[in-house]
Structures are given as C-alpha cells and as structure tokens.
Amino acid sequence: MNIFYIGHSTYYIDTGEFKIITDPGEFVMNKLKNKEMYEKFTHVTISHSHFDHSFINEFSEEITIINKCDVYENNSLRIHGFKSYHDNFKGYKRGENIIYLIHAEGTTLCHLGDLGHSLDDNFIDKLGNIDILFIPVGGNITIDGELASNLVHRLSPKIVLPMHYRTPDFPLPIEGLEKFLYEVNLPIIHKKSLEIYSNDLKNEKTKIILLNELS
Q1: Which residues are 107's β-sheet partners?
Q2: CA distance linking residue 161 with residue 159, whole number of Å
C-alpha cells in the first residue's frame, strides 16, 4: 500500500487493486490534473459537502463515490462510514461529518474527516483497532491540536497522518502543526510518501508521519 498527501484533508491511497482519494477539495485536486494518478482513481470518500472536501465535478462516472454512513464492499476493499459532527453542537453549527474505516490489504485505515468533537468510549470501541489514522489538527473548524492529541492516545493507531492544518498554500484561519506535535509528544518521521505493508505494523508503537504535500 502506498499513501501520498495531496494537501488539506486529501490523501491518495493506492492498494494496488484500488486507488482511493479522500475528501477532494478543488484547490488540491487542481494540483493533480497533470499527474498520472488522476486518471486512475477508483473510489472517492467524502466526509461532508463543504467545497474544500467534495469537489467531484470532473470525475469519471466509473469512479465510485462514497458519501453515506453505510458499508461498501468490493472484493478485498471494505469501507464503513460512521456518523459524527463537524462541530461540538451535534451539527447545529456546521452539520454532520462522516468518519470512514477503510479495510484493505489487511490494514485498517481511519479518516476522521472534519471531526469537530471528541469521541466517547462507545464510539472508540466501534472503531476498533486502527493501523493508520488520518486526523484533523488545525482547530477552529475542526478539533484542535490538544483534542487531536487526546484522541490519538485513546485510539492508539500505529501510524498517525495529520491533516487539515494551516499551510502557505492553503491559509485557512486554522492552526499549523506545532500545537498538535507538542501536545502529542510522539516520535515524528518525515517522508515523501508512505509505503506500508500489514506485516510492518504488527509490533509498531504509535508514531507521527509527516508526508510532503504533492507539488
């Protein structure tokens, strides 16, 4: 499995058989137009309908778009959506959000979308064991670095991939990575992209991996 960070909340997950893009925003998708991977998408997950997470206007009709709290299965791929909220007021301010569990190649990935609140113990039990966690950390619109840090330690994934933080290319009124990295206090590894196999994760302890944004 290979994982690339396109930017914002958009990751590209290549399982070999399937090519999954998460939360495609118009700005980040424009960076992909001249890339070979743009022509290979098989599945898209959308956590909510805001413009920076749901730009699907130019996708082929052959691509499977997943945007509901449901279970999707196709051979070795299973994607399960869980209802959550984009704020701490049960969606009153910003609406609902879908958390996705993606099971592929013997690996469980969890994309939290624009989660805006903590998760109770029952919800965490439903998610189960997570190998790779995609978590928003920028605050203001989503959970902030402190709350994200708390969730990381409660979910105990093997690999944490932060997202939805302030960058020069996407200057939303949110925080950068610094607060989250300070609060979470875990080993940090920088990579261009992530190549991972399920056997690599068996005895791993939780660590943060910062992937370079696709340029």
Answers
A1: 104
A2: 7
The domain segmentation of the chain, as residue ranges, is 2-211
pLDDT at 56: 82
Paired tokens of 195: 């190549």
Beta strands in 48-193 (DSSP E): 64-66, 71-74, 77-85, 96-104, 107-111, 132-136, 159-163, 188-191
* 44: helix, strand or coil: strand
- Contact assessment for residue 123 and residue 112, using Cβ atoms and an 8 Å cutoff: no
Please give the torsion angle defined by the CA atoms of residues 101, 104, 108 and 109, in that order, rounded to the nearest 10 degrees.
Answer: -60
Q: Per-residue confidence at 34, pLDDT binned at 50, 70, 90?
A: low
The values of phi and psi at residue 39, to 5°, are -85, -5
Which residues on neighbouring strands pair with residue 78, listed in sequence order? 73, 103
Considering only the top CATH level, what class is 2-211?
Answer: alpha beta
